[in-house]
């Protein structure tokens, strides 16, 4: 039996290594590209198993480190050029970039982000044992690195494909989205090992799946209702086109649209407007804001809105050219107070990286001061709304698991406001919504999401969409939300458990490979 397994491995290794590199790279690229269809809006989750399984099969056979790196890079390019193609809309449609240049920029983005999988493949080939545990550990490591390295771009995680597949996503409130990714990748690699007739790895995968399924069947309630009546909420979707949203001549019209949509909603417990729905600083819109607060107070309503916030109190005329300003959310009206300032800013969209470096160029000196938002502190108090604390996230910072987790501590429900008009009818806004579902599941909190063009939605503590508004319509989404208290294990421990596990696995794999090498030499 052992001999036949070795022979099978050798035959597979020979066949794969005899394939022309160009054909292998095409297979790797396509394997990365098909992963997109496991995510929203397509939701064919088996591809989240098939896609990495193909990469594992290409890497597990003997080959040079250079070949492994190139295969991993090809897979990563396919993943990002297709999975992240929604960026083309923002680059081409709203930045007036020529088609050819926009496509080159997408390709360069794919090339850069593909390095994560290229390095994964290289380390897998040269430094650790070639088996499912090290592969799954390296996969999670590269996903985690994307949440902070070079400011982070935490998109296209395998775990998101299982957001509504409770047999696996039940791990999310225990150890976060990375634990879901880990089990899925371990399963994918183990299936390849079964084809190689090495079933021992599959046993562990089945065990982890059994644990996840047990959690789903037992359905532990990590959090519980606060014991107060549900809050009625109205989420206002203005559907303001991105190409006119920031035009000075259209600002008053934008305010009129939101005021008109809200006219019938005063009297609800909470009314929420999306990100930057007031397209001017708070001092410039002071009169309008006062009118809205008066309406809220008169109708026993809490009003929450996204707005650029200029911090005049922090302005020092002797050292600063401009007061710092923030992408923010304010809560006003009945039983409401608080200001949240966005912590995770979009590079080149909300700030210029390497601030100060441009000053060496006379023609660009000071330009970043004009364009850049300031970062909010990571130690902000939650918004106060009708006796509840609200954890807040603005736009794509909800994609950062740990940022949302920290903002969720000592809160009863969660809020995110966004403007995904930049990405048109692409899959980007729907992938973004799927991440909000995962954050709700991880933290055991209801999430309300108000957006400019969609997807506006109400999501329960299990990550299920309770209600959603149609995209690209000027509308109001009404519903009720439930305040909840208590902490999920993920809220208490964050990513530390899964990071400790993958670190131990990689160390064991590294030293295990070294011992094997020594025995062979001996």
TrEMBL record:
GO terms assigned for molecular function: N-acyltransferase activity
Protein name per the record: Apolipoprotein N-acyltransferase
Lineage: Bacteria, Pseudomonadati, Pseudomonadota, Gammaproteobacteria, Moraxellales
Main location: membrane
Pfam families in alphabetical order: CN_hydrolase, LNT_N
CDD domains named among the record's database cross-references: ALP_N-acyl_transferase
GO biological process, one term: lipoprotein biosynthetic process
Function: Catalyzes the phospholipid dependent N-acylation of the N-terminal cysteine of apolipoprotein, the last step in lipoprotein maturation.
Membrane-spanning residues: 21-38, 44-61, 68-88, 100-124, 144-162, 168-189, 201-218, 490-511
Subcellular location: Cell membrane
